[in-house]
What does this fold into?
Amino acid sequence: MNHEDYKEMLALDALGLLEEADAGALREHLEGCAQCRAEADEMRGVAAMLAYTAPPVAPDGELRGRILGSIHSVNSADGVTSASRPGDAAASVANASQTGSANAAGEGGAAASPDDAATPLPAAHAPAKVLPFAGRGEGRPGFFGRPAYAFGAIAASLVIAVLAVSLFMLWQQNEEMRAEIRRLSTRADEMTARAGEMQSELSREREEREILAAPGTRMTTLAGTESAPAAHAMLAYDRRTGRALLLASDLPPAPAGKAYQLWFIAGGRPLPGKVFTTDAGGRATLRDQIPPEGSNATIFAVTLEPAQGVSAPTGDKFLVGNAS
Amino acid sequence: MSSAERELSDANEIALLRAVAGGDEKAFASIYDLYSPILLGLLLRILHSRAEAEDCLQEVFLQVWQRAGSFDAARGRPFTWLVTLARSRAIDRLRSSGARERTAAASVVNAPDATDSASDAVEETFRSERGEVVRRALAEIPEEQRRALLLAYFDGLTQTEIAEQLKEPLGTVKTRMRSGMMKLRDILRERVRDVLPGL
It folds into this structure.
């Protein structure tokens, strides 16, 4: 079929007269042809105008109520239930249970929106109702000899009482849900924080593994001095990148205001590394970078210094080792 | 209604449909009030039964509620979308109920002249200026073309069935319908600025 053939099909397509095969072929063509698409849209508009030749007929009110009611609890195009506002989960729950209690009360009226219940209603508090009983006048005797209209009043009070209870229960439910949402929100925040921490921990460990596994990495041990005979450490370092990893154990805890500091001693000159402290078990892990001038360091040492670190060692040596 | 007013009412309906897509019940009720008379009239004309037409109207508006998000203002007016949807539902119902033979016969015999003026007060209320334009335009195209178009639109017959009804060869009938649509389109293009948006 060529373009002209498709153009010829447009009028019949707008009237819904095309056979399946032709209709399908035309649909495919329209996907790729903007000109035909515009003409097709116009033809459909023309066809729709034919509806004006049918006299309009006003539907009755009952039909209107039926149709407007039929969309309740049916998802609209965006998946939003008719009676709820977007994002207001509590409201849609309220409305869903309202339908239940409203049926019990026999009326589809009051919208039990949580926003309306500004103050909680005490449970089962029926507003005072003066029932038009004996002494008021003659009503037709109904069941049990009482005036018939009294029953209407009693029924009305019951309805109000039921509604009041329902409102209160819904309000309560809403409060509980809000509390639950707050709890979950806090939990979610905590978990996010924890996840962040774990992520940092993991990247640190990965770095350490990389240092240890890198081809140019050397290892050496540092031994404790008289200040800490039991202390020892391993130092992994890569002269090429300068990355260094110190794993120290059995170091006594640094006194307040002081910390351990790593030194790279090259040509007799000590070059300062970072400061660190130990954990409760006397262990420490330090990631450091050997300064360029220290790349051919022959000795590594750890001294005890003021907490902020110094540029030249002042304190006692705790760990010493030779470069391997 | 001036063309500016027409544009405004279309813009209003487009906004309403968008709101319906978002779950707005009030907007849905407004669309219902604006369109239910003309749609019910259309359904009645196709289905020839008040009960069927009312049931179908409910189906139609349920689909409006569920599919409002698929309305594309660039492809046509809200009127076209709603009427097309309604007609599809009615024709489907006609086809599945097997009532087609009945109504097809009835429509050829009783087909109201498109230019009949309405006597009903209700119809007067809803008579729109645009409806007038269309009725007059239809009156201006040749009778065979008009009959073919109305049979096609309101009775859901196939091309072959229409040809049988009109006792004409299929080719002739197809040409008549094509010509009728194009003539109608030309007349409407002149008199209704926004048959196609953007024109």
In short: The mean pLDDT of chain B is 83. The two ends of chain B are 18 Å apart (CA to CA). Chain B has ten helices and no strands.
